[in-house]
Design a protein that fits this description.
By secondary structure, the protein is α+β, with helices and mostly antiparallel strands. It has 20 helices and 20 strands. A hairpin with a 6-residue loop joins strand 6 and strand 7. Helix 8 packs across helix 9 and helix 14 packs across helix 19.
Length: 750
């Protein structure tokens, strides 16, 4: 192999010279190509201008470029729900999370930053910036890629509002035409504000207010220079510049906006130098559009809005909804439940308060210990009413002329086997299987005696009781009259029961539950056609019937199963309820100002509550203490009002008893109750008067004592009543006919 020949110096010179000539030729070719590209770009730019002017002007004269003939794209905006005190309960998110605001409610940096980075000649051009188009084309060519768009803010707004995002030559021409027309029709300030309220900033946020809340948990007017610059840079590529997922790209884009603001004279050099030093994004993810303060009431409001406007309108409506709910009462309700039922294994409990006479819902909440509840316990649940339904039997009886004070039935095991309502024998017993012999309907109410009310229901008529419940706005499940309806065998909701019971302190006026007082439509117009804020009332009972029901239930709150419910200041009335298997427990009660229902049970089903804090649950063991704790706080410092007197008292007459079956044997030891109700000529007294018998002490919130479900029986020799005592009831039942109304009690307010 011959050795490699070394290059001579003249060979090297030749090679170097050759390479130099080649580089020069390549440079000349590149310069020619670049010049050709520039010339082509310039020609294209000129062509675009000509096309835009020519075709745009032509299109401007045609119907295809008519703003009036175009239907704006629905972009929607969030709806907001407010409590009675004006505090925000939550928002109903639109498909596009958006909350428009005026320019005066934006930080001054937002419009400046947006114009600087998106359309620096916004205030000079007429909707289409031909200089900007040429500048953008030149930068794209010199960079070898698209680095700057040529669309103005007006063109982008037209694209967002009218013609969508399709990318065709016809669309570009139409976009330019419409931008020119829109610029002539609307002011620059209007165009910029509308753009800022509709452009997409990423993370489901449309418009600057939604973006400010989404990224910084503050209003648009509170944004700093750095925060405004960050937002202004997002619309070009929200995903690429997402500060949550790509913080460095977001930081670089923010600095680019700051440089554009400096170049456009929007900020001084000193402001730029101070801002550019920061490497922090200071993000604070917002929850204003996802946080709901009162979920049960909130869902009820949404249902009402959906019924009135339709779900699509609500989700894109931009509504401002003002409601009846009192946040203070909501807090007190939750506090009362947690005080009486503090443990995580405790059953759920719900509270709803309604204002008598108006139906305004003042409280609607529940405490559910275990997750998985997907419906509104207060408004949507259907649970057996138990003995709270006896109040409707009592109202039906009084309306038919039956005097509860002087009409007697026998408390004994009862078997219904005769008549159309008992084709299948129906056996009735009391809650604790104790019986008291002959007793008045009033006494039977205080003892919550099932056997008394089973017989009374059959005499009144189950269908009549069913109609009474419907008259008082109660939705039943199943919705048909049955023999056991008076004992609460049908399912109801706490809200319906609260509205029904509120009829009694309202002297027979039923008011449909009302949650919304005012709705402000997009544009600031108040909806006056839907009837928001106007109570929907009707007379369901006479004043006399409502008054007498209250008179009996007031006694029950003092001496019966509702003992301990009152606060000793505000006179109250109410009725407990417990289902046969202890799966539901209630106390439905009211004062002159407020009607409140407390329910307790397990949301997932009819699960017996046989040992809660070591006690078998009944209406008196837990719902009564919860009601007491809540209402005592709710009415604190409120005016003391007695129940009203009727303009006309009930007129009673004799009734014909039916034969429905058989009664069992009653031991003599249970013939005389420990309490004798006031005579028929005495009306309800206020809590300031001394009671006829000492009521049981109110159970405390920490350790609720279990009162017996009925006054304890005594032996044949009754103890002397404490002074002042009412006249004793004669040993034999008096006649069931009375013609004169009772004398009004001076302590009871008209």
């Amino acid at each position: 192999m011959s050795p490699r020949r070394r290059r001579r110096p003249d060979d090297l010179d030749f090679i170097l010279a050759h390479r130099g000539r080649k580089r020069k030729r390549t440079g000349r070719v590149q310069r020619r190509r670049r010049a050709g590209v520039i010339a082509a770009v310039f020609a294209i730019t000129v062509l675009i201008v000509v096309v835009t002017v020519g075709f745009g002007a032509g299109a401007a004269l045609s119907t295809s470029c008519d703003l009036n003939s175009l239907r704006p794209v629905e972009i929607g905006q969030n709806s907001f729900v407010f409590a009675d005190d004006g505090s925000l309960l939550g928002s109903i998110p639109a498909e596009r999370n958006r909350e428009p605001v005026a320019t005066s409610r934006m930080s001054k940096w937002l419009p400046r930053a947006t114009v600087a980075i998106e359309d620096r000649r916004f205030w000079q051009h007429g909707g289409v910036d031909y200089v900007g188009i040429a500048r953008a084309a030149w930068k794209d060519v010199t960079a070898g890629k698209v680095v700057q768009g040529g669309s103005t803010i007006t063109q982008q707004l037209v694209r967002n509002l009218y013609i969508g995002q399709e990318k065709t030559f016809n669309r570009k021409v139409k976009e330019a035409c419409l931008a020119i027309k829109l610029s002539r029709r609307k002011s620059k300030a209007w165009i910029l504000n509308t753009y800022l309220n509709s452009v997409y900033y990423g993370n489901h946020a449309y418009g600057v207010e939604a973006a400010a809340q989404t990224y910084f948990s503050k209003h648009a007017r509170q944004l700093t220079l750095l925060q405004a610059a960050l937002l202004a840079g997002l619309p070009q590529a929200p995903s690429d510049y997402d500060p949550y997922h790509n913080p460095q790209a977001a930081l670089d884009r923010r600095d680019e906006v700051l440089r554009a603001m400096l170049a456009n004279g929007a900020i001084t050099f000193a402001q730029y130098q101070h801002a550019i030093r920061s490497n922090a994004l200071d993000l604070r993810p917002g929850r204003i559009y996802t946080r709901i303060k009162q979920p049960y009431f909130f869902s009820y409001v949404i249902d009402a809005l959906d019924k009135q406007y339709g779900s699509n309108t609500v989700r894109q409506g931009g509504l401002k909804v003002y409601t009846t709910i009192d946040p203070r009462l909501q807090r007190l309700a939750i506090k009362a439940i947690n005080e009486i039922l503090p443990y995580k294994e405790d059953p759920a409990s719900a509270i709803v308060s309604v204002e008598p006479g108006t139906g305004a819902i003042r409280a609607m909440t529940a405490v559910v210990r275990k997750s998985g509840n997907q419906f509104n316990l207060v408004a949507q649940s259907a649970r057996q009413a138990g003995s709270t339904f006896k109040t409707f039997v009592l109202a039906s009886a009084i309306e038919q002329g039956i005097d509860p004070d002087s009409t007697y039935y026998t408390s004994a095991p009862f078997t219904c086997s005769v008549g159309p309502w008992c084709q299948t024998p129906w056996q009735v017993h009391t809650y604790d299987n104790s019986y008291r012999g002959s007793m008045s309907v009033t006494h039977g109410t205080l003892a919550s005696d099932n056997t008394i009310f089973a017989q009374l229901t059959l005499d009144v008529g189950p269908r009549y009781v069913w109609q009474m419940a419907h008259r008082l706005g109660v939705h039943l499940s199943p919705d048909k009259p049955v023999a056991s309806i008076g004992l609460g065998s049908l399912a109801v909701s706490p809200l319906d029961m609260a509205a029904a019971y509120a009829t009694f302190p309202a002297m027979g006026i039923y008011a449909k539950p009302m949650a919304i007082t005012k709705v402000v439509l997009p544009g600031g117009h108040v909806d006056k056609d839907s009837g928001w804020g106007k109570p929907q009332t009707k007379r369901a009972l006479s004043e006399g019937v409502a008054w007498k029901v209250t008179d009996v239930l007031r006694q029950n709150a003092l001496y019966g199963t509702g003992t301990g419910s009152g606060d000793g200041i505000h006179v109250n009335a109410g009725k407990t309820g417990t289902t046969e298997n202890h799966a539901d427990a209630w106390f439905d009660g009211y004062t002159r100002q407020l009607c409140t229902v407390v329910w307790m049970g397990y949301p997932k089903g009819e699960i017996p509550m046989l040992s809660v804090h070591g006690l078998t649950v009944a209406g008196a063991t837990f719902p009564v203490p919860i009601w007491h704790a809540y209402m005592a706080a709710a009415l604190w410092h409120h005016k003391v009002l007695g129940f009203e007197l009727p303009s006309k008292y009930p007129v009673y007459h004799a009734i014909t008893r039916g034969n429905y079956g058989s009664l069992g044997y009653v031991a003599p030891a249970y013939t005389t109750p420990s309490y004798t109700p006031p005579a028929a000529t005495t009306t309800a007294v206020t809590t300031q008067a001394a009671p006829a018998a000492p009521p049981a002490p109110a159970p405390t919130a920490a350790a609720p004592a279990k009162p017996k479900p009925a006054p304890p029986p005594v032996h044949t020799t009754p103890p002397p009543a404490p002074p002042p005592a009412p006249p004793p009831t004669p040993p034999e039942p008096p006649p069931t006919t009375t013609t004169e109304p009772p004398t009004p009690n001076p302590d009871q307010t008209p």
